[in-house]
């Protein structure tokens, strides 16, 4: 088991996905100073109930190891953070805050690729890129539909899950995938469902 400093958030971080944050709580500023002086890694878990600020939240048990790429000071004592998701983990035990959350974790085995999954990867990529193109007319801050992805098929599968225009709970569902097939099938299905909901979210103006 590994001991990780933990950063519970209102979003799920997937392997290969970037994480951009402004850190301002004193306990997390202390965590960043400790982390950057060590292996530059911390854990990210999605908050199940509660809010990011102040503690007292309930958290999902499956998360992702984040590695800091950049950390810079900002006005008002804040820190700007750019990190990237890596290995997945399962929380074995939460430890008392000191002063920030910490947990003993067990790494989750990496997904394994088979050439038989190539067609599903192609189909899922088509679904995700089409959804990004359509939803960009209704939502801001989405990934461009022509964003470049990794040539490695497992990394590409995770990146497709990460850029899919889905909510935090859907991304958490994808994070729990046990196989590449499950990841790709769930990504395509959830993305299609999100696309099908667009007419209800943005009905035509009756006028």
Sheet-strand content, in percent, reads: 25-35%
Mean pLDDT score = 91
Following the backbone from N to C, one meets helices and strands in this order, namely EEHEEEEEHHHHH
State the CATH class of the largest domain. Answer: Mainly Beta
Percent in helix = 25-40%
Unreliable stretches (pLDDT < 50, length at least 5) are none
> Which topology of the largest domain does CATH recognise?
Archaeosine Trna-guanine Transglycosylase, Chain: A, domain 4
What is the straight-line distance between the termini?
61 Å
Radius of gyration: 18 Å
Domain unit count: 2
- Placed side by side, the strands forming the largest sheet appear as 1-3-5-6-7
Shape: globular
Count of DSSP E strands?
7
Total number of helical segments?
Answer: 6
- What structural class is derived from the secondary structure elements? alpha+beta
Structure description:
The protein has 207 residues and is α+β, with helices and mostly antiparallel strands. The protein has 2 domains: 106 residues, Archaeosine Trna-guanine Transglycosylase, Chain: A, domain 4; 87 residues, Methane Monooxygenase Hydroxylase, Chain G, domain 1 (Up-down Bundle). Helices cover 33% and strands 29% of the residues. It contains 6 helices and 7 strands. Helix 2 runs parallel beside helix 5. It is globular and about 45 Å long. 31% of the residues are buried.
Secondary structure elements and their pairing?
Elements: E1 2-9, E2 18-23, H1 26-36, E3 41-49, E4 58-59, E5 62-73, E6 79-95, E7 102-107, H2 118-135, H3 153-163, H4 168-175, H5 180-196, H6 198-201
Parallel strand pairs: 1-3
Antiparallel strand pairs: 1-7, 2-6, 3-4, 3-5, 5-6, 6-7
Helix pairs in contact: 2-3, 2-5, 3-5, 4-5
